[in-house]
Amino acid sequence: MSLSSDVVLLITHSGDFFTIDRVAEALSKKGVQPFRFDTDKFPLEVQLTAQFDKSKSYHWLEYGADSISTEQVKAVWMRRIWEPKFGEELAPQFREACIKESRATLDGFWDSLREARWVDDLERINVAHNKLRQLRVASEVGFVIPQTLITNKAEAAREFFQQVKGKMVSKLLTALSRSMEQTSFFLYTSVVKEEDLHDAESLRYCPMVFQEEIPKQLELRVVYVNGNVFVGALDASVYAGEKVDWRSPGVDVGKWQHHQLPEEIVGCLKAFMGKFGLLFGAFDFIVTPAGEYVFLEINPSGEWGMLEKDLDLPISGAIADALIS
């Protein structure tokens, strides 16, 4: 069935729930037709066709009983892109080629939607994902940032450990792979002890991020949507001593609380997002016992469902408004 002329394309994966459903519901209430595209279902269960002639190109997407054309899509929510799921019937020697060709086909489809309104543009998302660039821009707009070292040199890591008086954490610049998202190996911020640096020569294989460990009173998840700011706070004393990263599996973080940001921090947020040209971002901050706000990072497509669910913050409605504004 072909949908109406005004469609908002929701790009995600088949395991996504709650956030995607809430945004789709908010769009429907505003009289706009959402179309969910589970990227991991392409190419086995989603059909994508592109045709070019001398004067025009045509693109169609078919998923289940529904289909849309490029011309119908007025806006795109870039939630997640996952690699295709192939069964055992596909021989391993063909898997990589099929993934590459599927990815290239999707890239062409995204390009065909360049006239639509994106939340957010893929190129801008990719630029903003770089944590080194994030730290530079955060400092430029006035955020306080942790002392940070990125290195593949063992001696530099040991010297930095002494510089921060043994209060040091480590993390990677990127997740190692999509398949590792359900594990905690190297994906979460970890405390570094002096004995951990005895084997630091292995850094020559993989640079890492080292930062001073910031004392915590609160940890904040701050969601920015087109000028609107939504904040959830965690009392760090609830899980202190368990893990340094509240996102780690098995950590009981207690209840999310409402929190009001100072106006100067809101101003820095808007300047930061303006630098990257983003409409959406999920920020992580620490509030120290002295009341200082310390920027950690931004995820341009980060999670926010827990804030809407637990604090009744209208984030899905704000995303729907950003898409159709």
Span of the ends, CA to CA: 27 Å
Number of alpha- plus pi-helical segments? 8
Query: What is the percent of helical residues?
Result: 25-40%
Record field, number of beta strands:
16
Spatial strand arrangement across the major sheet:
14-13-12-15-16
Class per helix and strand makeup: alpha+beta
Rg over C-alpha atoms, rounded to the nearest angstrom: 22 Å
**Average pLDDT score:** 89
The major beta sheet can be summarized as:
5 strands, antiparallel
Shape assignment = globular
Query: Could you spell the SSE succession in H and E letters?
Result: EHEEEEEHEHHEHEEEEEEHEEHH
Percent strand equals 25-35%
Commentary on this structure:
The chain is α+β, with helices and mostly antiparallel strands and 325 residues long. The protein has eight helices and 16 strands. Strands 14-13-12-15-16 form a five-stranded antiparallel sheet, sandwiched between helices. Mean pLDDT is 89; it is low at 176-187.
List keywords for this structure.
325 residues, 8 helices, five-stranded antiparallel β-sheet, four-stranded parallel β-sheet, MvdD-like_ATPgrasp, ATP_grasp_MvdC, MvdC family ATP-grasp ribosomal peptide maturase
Overview in brief:
The chain is of the alpha+beta class and 325 residues long.
Topology:
Layout: E1 7-12, H1 19-29, E2 33-38, E3 46-52, E4 57-63, E5 66-69, E6 73-78, H2 92-112, E7 117-119, H3 122-128, H4 131-141, E8 148-151, H5 154-163, E9 168-171, E10 190-192, E11 208-212, E12 218-225, E13 228-235, E14 257-258, H6 263-276, E15 280-287, E16 293-299, H7 305-311, H8 315-324
Parallel strand pairs: 1-2, 1-6, 6-7
Antiparallel strand pairs: 3-4, 4-5, 8-11, 9-10, 9-11, 12-13, 12-15, 13-14, 15-16
Helix pairs in contact: 1-8
